From TrEMBL:
InterPro entries: Cadherin, Cadherin-like_dom, Cadherin-like_sf. It is found in: Membrane. The keyword 4Fe-4S does not apply. The keyword Coiled coil does not apply. The chain crosses the membrane at residues 487-510. Residues 1-23 form the signal peptide. PANTHER family: CADHERIN-23, CADHERIN-RELATED FAMILY MEMBER 5-LIKE ISOFORM X1. It comes from Cyprinus carpio carpio. Residues 34-130, 132-236, 252-360, 361-472 form the Cadherin domain. It holds the Pfam family Cadherin. This is Cadherin domain-containing protein. GO terms for biological process: adherens junction organization; calcium-dependent cell-cell adhesion via plasma membrane cell adhesion molecules; cell migration; cell morphogenesis; cell-cell adhesion mediated by cadherin; cell-cell junction assembly; homophilic cell adhesion via plasma membrane adhesion molecules. Residues 521-545 are annotated as: Disordered. Residues 534-545 have a biased composition (Polar residues).
Length: 545
């Protein structure tokens, strides 16, 4: 039989054992260190708990607390990931570690607390992207030297992957740029820029992951605007192109020319092509220019306006035979840099005073051709003479102005069938003509010095093979077709005089013959009988002798 004291000790021992057994339901656990891949699905197992009690079956209660506790939930003794379709576990957003705490309650009394630290393992789920401020349009001077840095691009990757940069070599402007250090994003000029050739370039740059198997990449196109630099010399206008390569032209300065007379003085000269004008080769800068005469001004006879390039004649030319022409060397230089200059030639021709315009001695010339297979034949006129269509200029003693230029325009369907030489001879493409063709052409004679013109027509007929060329026009109109009015009138008067004389002689001869006839003849005539008809009788018939 137990004494009260022993009973008390036994009861205390049972109570102590009961509390120890009861407390052990929250024991057995430990701090949790786990990993989970980002973008893992909901319900992914984080860790299994090692506590003694079974939550829900005993009087213990488990509770998740802490900053990231809402990313987990308990299922028995298992901690699972609490994500969803709209709430994805993203390392780049949440950071690399989730921290929470597990508290174990027994009869609402905290029996134990464990730390939960879950590392989020990175996945390559982000594409590289360029920082916008590094791929904006750039403005670069064309004077930037080769191997200089043009600009630097920068790309980011949310996963922290290493980025390598490279240019797209297949683009049109790829030859202008290169990247020497692939990880730097520094773009280097690899070819000289030229504003006069191209004012805008485009370079395509790739940013590629180098430490991942996916090798995700991003692309950016950077526009490079080329600014005009002062690297071109002045150019006289209009320039004559001698070489064309795409948009880049190489041209030479024109030769300006003008005609003056011995009477010209204190006059502004208007050159052709004109006016005399130069421009800075850098079209976007257009630096002001200054003009001067390097040589040929003949001691001040010619002067030039330094700002406009206008040339004036100050003194007249006394004798054009002694000074028939002048050659001026004109220089245009930049005001801000005299070493940048260009030189052109201006020719001044001294002419005699023009008093008479050219003219043709007839308005219509008649021409003939014989049908032939020959590729070229001279057009002839009456009498098979070579047709010469030539203008007369009374400013010359012989009427021949060497500065007359002849051109021919078809008035009928004869384009490219005829050609006129500068001697006034007409040449035809006979192999393209047929018998009975008829063409009317207009000939224009232009005085290249005065600009005056004269006009005439050429009427050309194509004859059959073997058909002779008419020796003269038919009829009075054709007879005088090739004569001027004065000559035609003189010939008509002469013909009239000769006709009158012939008529007078004819009448005189008739009178003389009548006077020489015998009386019988005269009597027969008086009786109204023919002298060879005898008198007839009723018994005898008429006899004609």
């Amino acid at each position: 039989m137990l004494t009260p004291w022993r009973l008390f000790l036994c009861q205390m021992a049972l109570n102590i054992f009961y509390h120890i057994a009861k407390a052990s339901l929250c024991l057995g656990g430990q701090d949790i260190f786990a990993t989970v891949r980002e973008n893992s699905p909901t319900g992914e197992i984080i860790a299994n708990l090692g506590i003694n009690g079974d939550p829900g079956a005993s009087s213990i209660r488990l509770c998740l607390t802490g900053e990231n506790a809402d990313w987990f939930y308990l299922e028995g003794r298992t901690i699972r990931l609490n994500s969803s379709f709209s709430r994805i576990l993203d390392r780049e957003v949440l950071g690399s570690v989730l921290i929470a705490a597990l508290t174990c309650y027994e009869d609402n009394i905290i029996r134990s607390r464990y730390r939960i630290m879950v590392e989020i393992l990175n996945e390559n789920d982000n594409m590289p992207y360029f920082l916008e401020d590094t791929i904006q349009p750039r403005y670069i001077s064309e004077l930037l030297t080769v191997n200089s840095m043009v600009f630097t691009v920068k790309a980011r990757d949310g996963d922290g992957d290493t980025i390598t940069y490279m240019t797209d070599k297949s683009t049109a402007d790829a030859s202008y740029f290169r990247i020497d250090l692939p990880n730097s994003g520094m773009v280097i000029l690899d070819k000289p820029l030229d504003y006069e050739t191209k004012t805008q370039l485009q370079v395509v740059i790739f940013a590629v992951e180098t430490t991942t198997k996916e090798k995700y990449s991003a692309t950016a196109t950077v526009t490079v605007n080329v600014l005009d630099g002062d690297d071109q010399y002045p150019q006289f206008q209009p320039c004559a192109p001698v070489y064309v390569d795409g948009d880049h032209n190489i041209c030479t300065n024109p030769v300006y020319s003008v005609n003056i007379t011995e009477t010209d003085e204190d006059a502004v000269l208007y050159f052709s092509p004109g006016p005399i004008h130069a421009e800075d080769g850098d079209k976007d800068i257009l630096t002001p220019l200054v003009y001067s005469i390097l040589s040929g001004d003949d001691n001040g006879r010619f002067t030039i306006d330094s700002k406009t390039g206008e040339i004036s004649l100050k003194q007249r030319v006394e004798n054009r035979l002694l000074m028939p022409s002048f050659s001026l060397r004109i220089m245009a230089a930049q005001v801000n840099d005299p070493k940048k200059y260009s030189v052109a030639t201006a020719l001044v021709h001294v002419l005699s005073k023009n008093r008479f315009p050219p003219f043709f001695n007839k308005t219509v010339y008649k021409g003939f051709l014989i049908e032939s297979s020959s590729p070229a034949t001279l057009v002839t006129t009456y009498g098979n003479q070579v047709l010469v269509v030539q203008a007369i200029d009374r400013d010359f003693r012989d009427g021949i102005n060497p500065k007359i230029h002849y051109t021919m325009q078809p008035l009928t369907g004869s384009n490219k069938l005829y050609h006129i030489t500068q001697d006034g001879i007409v040449i035809a493409r006979t192999d393209r003509l047929r018998a009975f063709d008829r063409h009317i052409l207009e000939v224009i004679a232009t005085d290249e010095e005065s600009g005056e013109t004269a006009h005439a027509s050429v009427d050309i007929e194509v004859l059959q093979r073997g058909q002779p060329v008419p020796r003269s026009p038919f009829g009075e109109e054709r007879l005088f077709g090739d004569m001027n009015v004065g000559m035609a009138g003189g010939i008509a008067a002469l013909v009239l005089i000769v006709a009158v004389i012939v008529l007078f002689l004819f009448l005189w001869l008739i009178k003389r013959r009548r006077e020489r006839r015998d009386p019988a003849d005269r009597g027969a005539v008086a009786l109204g009988k023919h002298p060879n008809v005898e008198a007839s009788s009723p018994s005898s018939p008429h006899h004609v002798l």
